[in-house]
Amino acid sequence: MKFCRFKSGNQSKIGLLGEKVIDLSPILPDDMAGLIARFDRALPAIHSYLEKSPSVFDLNSVTLLPPIWPPKKILCSGINYHGHFHENPKAVLPQSPFFFNKLSNSVIGPGDAIIKPLETKQLDYEVELAIVIGRKMHRTPPEDVMPSIFGYTILNDVSARDVQFTDNQITLGKNFDTFAPIGPCITTSDEIPNPNNITLRTTVNDQLLQDGSTSDWVYTIPELLSALTKVMTLDPGDIVTTGTPAGVGYFQKPQIFLVPGDVVHLEIEGIGVLSNPVTGTGA
């Protein structure tokens, strides 16, 4: 299943994403984290509802929203692809999984504009496979990680490189408003049984810039999440990303940075496409 959030009129709802959007609002409130937490109990009602000719919407008649709102935690894995490590001459391969956070102010949905702030001339993209936690996790051993995953989505780890690389300001460089597009849906884990070998691509204005595979990971999902849960409890609906492959704009030759008028398309096998235009700041 591919769960999404969407707006029809003035109402936000949960639905199933396909060629059209199936409206689940008659049986589910707009609470994706709540649905995830009680998914085993909700699934029979969803199946029963789908057998009764539910309402559907054409994609062009609705607005897709961030699949989880508001996200409680978003943790991003850094330097987790060998290719991305090798393209960065200053990078140090982490001896254990490395994380930073994205904040809720940065979250936008499919089709929303990434706003280039005045403070950067080096606006960059990063396609990331994002894990959506399904069960509370605390000091979870690697062998118990995969059953605790609800599904997967796409996150664009938009970065202001000149801010990020000045005094190692990772939090500031990655958390301007609109710097975390997420979507278009959450694909449940049963539809991606082997996340260790799926393709990820980024195109900007139809130019292919990232073309990688999760088979290039430094740390696998069990290793990432097991390490993270030794520090903090992960709750249903939390989002943890898995790094980005080679090809980010900062390390292109010549460098490629996003400017107003660009359109960024991120595609991950089994999930879909997350597209966002770039505009200038109104400040």
Describe the fold and architecture.
The protein is of the alpha+beta class and 283 residues long. The chain has helices at 32-37, 39-50, 82-87, 161-164, 170-173, 221-228, and strands at 2-8, 11-17, 20-23, 56-58, 63-65, 74-78, 98-101, 107-108, 114-116, 123-124, 127-133, 149-156, 159-160, 180-188, 199-204, 207-213, 239-241, 263-268, 272-280. The protein has two domains: 2-64, no CATH class; 74-280, Alpha-Beta Complex (Fumarylacetoacetate hydrolase, domain 2), CATH 3.90.850. It has six helices and 19 strands. Strands 1, 2, 3, 4, 5, 6, 7, 8, 11, 12, 14 and 17 form a twelve-stranded mixed sheet that branches. A five-stranded mixed sheet has the order 9-19-18-15-16, with no helix packed on it. The chain has a two-stranded antiparallel ribbon with strand order 10-13. Strand 18 (263-268) and strand 19 form a beta hairpin. The mean pLDDT is 96.
Element order, helices and strands?
Answer: EEEHHEEEHEEEEEEEHHEEEHEEE
Question: Could you tell me the number of beta strands?
Answer: 19
CATH architecture verdict of the largest domain: Alpha-Beta Complex
Question: What is the makeup of the main sheet?
Answer: 12 strands, mixed
Structural class category: alpha+beta
The fold-level CATH name of the largest domain is Fumarylacetoacetate hydrolase, domain 2
Counted up, domains total 2
**Mean pLDDT, nearest integer?**
96
Q: Which CATH top level class of the largest domain fits?
A: Alpha Beta
Helix content: 10-25%
CATH H level of the largest domain: which superfamily? Answer: Fumarylacetoacetase-like, C-terminal domain
Total of DSSP H or I helical runs spanning 4+ residues = 6
| C-alpha end-to-end distance | 40 Å
How much beta, percentage-wise? 25-35%
Q: In angstroms, what is the radius of gyration?
A: 18 Å
Low-confidence stretches: none
